[in-house]
Design goal:
about 220 residues; mainly alpha; 3-stranded mixed β-sheet; 8 helices; 3 strands; about 5% strand; elongated
Length: about 220
């Protein structure tokens, strides 16, 4: 039973990551018929939406929008690539810049919580190393419950960040990037199903992290039983 549970958890965490990678690689071939690269499209869209102050840069740290640095950062293959994946990912990250410029509530909330999570993640790292020693030193039930409560509290911040991130990602993909690409005719109608798949994968990029944080939180909550 324990082995089955472990396999189920592994599947829940790993399969979304594999699906995202498969989807992006499936549409990663360069297309000479596309009018520009992902980086060029990002620059064009930023200028179109009055965001000339936002830069477009390459990175090896994963595609993302940096709200502090006001920069859309793309992997080299998406920045310089002329593929459907490059175009869709560029539009998705520009959509985060649009969210930021409009002061959208969920993105602002995510930024505040993410900064808080950086501190709680560091504390959690120290706590989880020290927890076994503390468990030996404190033998009273109330002290043990206090330890568990600390663990749950530290993990809860990251869970909340991940849960808030998901609707932010879906908004970027489907409420912004998809209409921009479709209505602006940046991509042919025949290619829109593929673009939709890539945007869905982009939105689900953080799903694995959300699932991992929920699994870790569930493990601590079980100790209260």
């Amino acid at each position: 039973m324990i082995g089955f549970a472990a396999l189920a958890i592994l599947a829940i965490v790993v399969l979304p990551q594999l699906w995202v990678r498969h989807t992006l690689s499936r549409h990663a071939a360069d297309r000479p018929d596309l009018p520009g690269t992902g980086g060029e499209l990002a620059r064009h869209l930023l200028d179109r939406f009055g965001l000339a102050h936002v830069t477009v840069e390459t990175t090896d740290a994963g595609d993302h929008y940096d709200p502090q640095g006001k920069a859309v950062r793309l992997l080299p293959r998406h920045h310089s690539g002329r593929s459907l994946s490059a175009v869709a990912i560029a539009a998705h990250e520009v959509s985060h810049a649009i969210q930021d410029a409009r002061g959208e509530r969920l993105l602002a909330m995510r930024q505040v919580l993410a900064r808080m999570a950086q501190a709680t993640d560091r504390l959690a790292g120290v706590f989880f190393v020290a927890a076994p020693v503390l468990a030996i030193l404190v033998r009273t039930p109330m002290a043990m419950l206090a330890l568990i409560a600390v663990g749950i509290g530290l993990l809860s911040v990251r869970v909340i960040v991940n849960l808030v991130t998901l609707p932010v990602e879906f908004d970027a993909s489907f409420a912004k990037a998809l209409p921009i690409l479709d209505e602006g005719e940046y991509v042919a109608a025949a290619d829109m199903p593929a673009v939709r798949s890539v945007l869905r994968a982009a939105a689900f990029t953080y799903l694995a992290g959300a699932l991992i944080s929920l699994v870790n939180l569930a493990r601590w909550i079980r100790l209260l039983r």
